[in-house]
Amino acid sequence: MVRSTVLAPGRVFVTRRGGLVVRVELGRNSGEGCPFSSKPAAMVDSAPSHQGLKAALEYLPEFSRRVLRACNRIPAGEVRSYQELAVKVGKPGGARAVGRVMARNPVPLLIPCHRVVKARGYLGGFGGGPRWKEFLLGREGWSFEGKGKSRRLKHKEKTGG
Question: Looking at domain 12-156, does it have CATH number 3.40.50.300?
């Protein structure tokens, strides 16, 4: 089966330490960095190891590590609200704190913070910019409605045969 690919909204920059991926940055324009792959793990040679994610998160505060671990458990094609994630990590009413953690995610393609949205499906922010968030969610089958800050998830396209 042949699949068409969509050009990503920018370049991907990977920082390694001791052979482990410790930071992924999403560029907003062309420039240096490695081209986006249809499979984010291919960009970093293989699926992230437990050791690699541990290295990327080791200098973060405990709350940030808990939030990012919970985010990492969101299955592809699904989304959670900032509030749902806050409840999941034991901080009801902590949606803004979760949003701050998402904004500082050191490895956004490996820990899929694009799957965390505002209440009622509004997209919210994203470290790589709104075009990256739409691009990544779109690759997982979501479509959108509205413009600017009113942009929100419309529905998930049905896949399969």
Answer: no
